[in-house]
Amino acid sequence: MLKRILLLLGDSAASASARAYAFQLAQETGAGLAGLAGIDLAALAVTSLGRAGAGGLKVRLERDLRAQAEDQQHRLRAGYQQACADHGVPFEWLAFEGAPLAALQQASETRDLLVTGCDTGFQGGVEVPLPDLLARLLALTPRPCVVCGEEPPHGGDVLVAYDGSVPAMRSVQMFALIGLATGRKVRVISVDPSQEEAARRASAAVSYLESHGYQAEAMPITSRISPPDVLRLETANVKASLLVMGSYGHRGLKELLFGSTTHKLVENPPAALFVYH
Fold this sequence. Notes:
Number of helices: 9
Largest sheet: 10 strands, mixed
Number of strands: 10
Number of domains: 2
Radius of gyration: 20 Å
Strand content: 15-25%
Order of helices and strands: EHEHEHEHEEHEHEHEHHE
Strand order of the largest sheet: 3-2-1-4-5-10-9-6-7-8
Helix content: 40-55%
CATH class of the largest domain: Alpha Beta
CATH topology of the largest domain: Rossmann fold
CATH superfamily of the largest domain: HUPs
CATH architecture of the largest domain: 3-Layer(aba) Sandwich
């Protein structure tokens, strides 16, 4: 059962979408919500220009970047505090200066779920692609994460991408136990060149979800098309507001932590993306 949510705050459209989704979850479930913003000090360091007077210029540039980062943090706090008041949600604020991964790991230690925009970063107002940071975060914390794109999720069914792998099993279990979509219809999609295998996998996941009280439907798909492309199409077809996936991969460290299919979808999520390592 969902009790405490951690929201990563930023200025982008995707960050605004994540904020809307987090407040929606908090109101639907009664879970507590904490907003997190911070300053990645390493990102504010300016490389020395290596010429006369460069030292002074470096100091001024870093001072200006620090001022911009602090201004952003103040704006995020004020905006989040007002949003909490507007939604009737208790205001809880977390901030850090230093290494984002260490701060995120510590903050997530006492939360059930992380919610973030797909480009939310902590680099003084510069939005950065999140997948690499998220891949490392998922490797360090056992908490699931919801990654939002620019379009806020509105109602709709849930689509579960299931391939029968151990990470996919873990993701489906965590999704079922945390109760993110209670009362919503769940569709389980399994993509495989073999119709028999796709049907078997989808049926297994449906059986598991139904045992936890979900209304679930199997959607086996026989295809050799790239899984991210299939999932994007089906997410649009069923107008899903949430796409549930496991994070997995087999080629190299980055893919071992995050998986090529998940990574491609996180870069531009077709719906709010539930990811669990």
